[in-house]
Amino acid sequence: MKRFRLLFSTAVIAGLLAWGCSRSPGIDTAAAAEAPVYKPAVASAHQQLRRSQGWLVDAQGRVVILHGVNAVWKQAPYVAPDSVDGFTAADADWLAAHGFKAVRLGVLFAGVMPQPHMVDSSYLDRIDRIVKLLAARGIYVLLDFHQDLFNERFQGEGFPDWATAPGRFDTLAHAGFPLNYFTPPASRAFDRLWDDIDGLQDDYRDAWTAVAARWADQDHLMGYELINEPWPGGNWPLCSGPQGCAHFENDKLQPMYQRAIAGIRSVDSDNIVWVEPQILFDFGVASHLGEKPLEDAQLGFSFHNYCLPETLLQAFGLKKLPACRALEQRVFSNARATSERLGAASLLTEFGASDDLLDIGRVVDQADRNQVGWMTWSYKNWGDPTTQAQGSGAQSLFARDDDFGSVKPAKLALMERPYPQAVAGVPLDYGYDTGTGRFHLTFSTTLPGGQAAGANLRSEIYVPKLHYPNGYVVTVQGGHVVSDANAALLQVVADAGATQVTVEVTAP
């Protein structure tokens, strides 16, 4: 089996490098088709995020940039316990103290509906404990119907046992993560979902309806992510080329999304619904979502960015290849094109999953250049069975799940970086130079909807003491500072009549 895994991974890597290292066509934003303009939903009385002209905005209309983490407990009962090696109030405090403003929280279909047609309200109660802890600290929560490899039968998680149909050759799907995806038994399980065998999509819709009904009015909710990394099932060979697979996304995946959205909208008309492309998008494959209308006024486009050659090589302890920068930028370019076509806000909801500091630094820098928020994989390891880290704990911010003192300093230094948490206008350019310690932000004073920002509307920039232990110096053009000297949350207000503001932060 080990020989099979090595040979298979080598073949996949070779195929990807054949096209992944070729020149990416990129995106000409000036020539790109304009995204459809939707009328924003009526603002909620709660502090929740909405989509406006492709940006995430808060209740004040400010553009929100999110830096956050994934928190997904993949073993039964599919929710982190209230313990030091799980998730407690101390964890929420730690995230807030280190500038993380968002958590992608795993809510597994297997937990929501462990029996056909029956929602487990006690499971929702256990999820609610974590939601409330985060919201109380001003951290936005994205509810994620997480899955990897569908079910434990295929060494994965996400879907309940009753949603799978036992097959004679299920034992073939025991090659581990991620190779089980390519086996016929695992692909058959996904095909049952896409083909709606036994009304599985109706149950999936009903599960989402129950979740949305529970949290529709929750403070600091940022929406619902319909499914993590959808695998195209038996269609995967046709989906693995650089152009992806229009048939699967247009005729299989998107109709399932539309059905789940209908369930959510029956109880929640406002919160963002986040859709993902098929999983091979994560490695540079184009998406076709939105080529057929996906009808909703509040859509988000969730995408991941992993360099597949590096992912597979790391999974087997092999030497890395230097092909990742081009592949990762291809993902950002494809994400921009897809989100514009959907008229959706865009968010990088997974990357990293390792202690590779060069890779992490490269991706967060590219995210800044593309003006995209992110959530790293992951907060803690939690015995993750489906990760390139393969039980090493490398994906976590900590060496130990039960010890905040075991945080990985160099990794945290890349993640806890200066960034604009809220912008009273539209960001034009921002970024942080790890070499010089310089942060810069330039933004227009017109909100995404076209309105001028109010005279006292504040832009907020997180400036961590980690990078500025002796304080910082601020230079502002077109505005002025209204926060205390060396405050962790730098607040700037535009000057009267200013159409553009530039902020620069440096060490003294």
In short:
With 508 residues, this protein is α/β, with parallel strands linked by helices. The protein has helices spanning 2-20, 89-97, 109-112, 121-135, 184-194, 200-215, 236-239, 246-265, 308-315, 324-342, 357-369, 409-415; strands spanning 50-52, 55-57, 63-64, 67-71, 102-106, 140-144, 221-225, 273-275, 299-305, 345-351, 374-376, 419-423, 426-433, 438-444, 459-462, 473-477, 479-481, 489-494, 500-506. Helices cover 29% and strands 18% of the residues.
CATH fold-type name of the largest domain: TIM Barrel
Radius of gyration, taken over Cα atoms and rounded to an integer in Å: 22 Å
Task: Please outline the major beta sheet.
Answer: 8 strands, parallel
Straight-line N-to-C gap: 58 Å
CATH superfamily of the largest domain: Glycosidases
Helix content: 25-40%
DSSP helical segment count? 12
Number of domains: 2
- Could you name the ranges where pLDDT drops below 50 across 5 or more consecutive residues? 1-44
CATH class category of the largest domain: Alpha Beta
Biggest sheet strand line-up: 10-9-8-7-6-5-4-11
Shape: globular
**Proportion of residues in β-strands:** 15-25%
Number of strands: 19
| Proper CATH architecture of the largest domain | Alpha-Beta Barrel
Index terms:
single chain, disordered N terminus, Immunoglobulin-like, TIM Barrel, 19 strands, 508 residues
Task: Walk me through the structure.
By secondary structure, the chain is α/β, with parallel strands linked by helices. The protein has helices at residues 2-20, 89-97, 109-112, 121-135, 184-194, 200-215, 236-239, 246-265, 308-315, 324-342, 357-369, 409-415; strands at 50-52, 55-57, 63-64, 67-71, 102-106, 140-144, 221-225, 273-275, 299-305, 345-351, 374-376, 419-423, 426-433, 438-444, 459-462, 473-477, 479-481, 489-494, 500-506. Strands 10-9-8-7-6-5-4-11 form an eight-stranded parallel beta sheet, with helices on one face. The protein has a five-stranded antiparallel beta sheet with strand order 3-12-15-18-17, with no helix packed on it. Strand 13 and strand 14 (438-444) form a beta hairpin. The longest helix is centred in the middle third of the chain and has 20 residues, at 246-265.
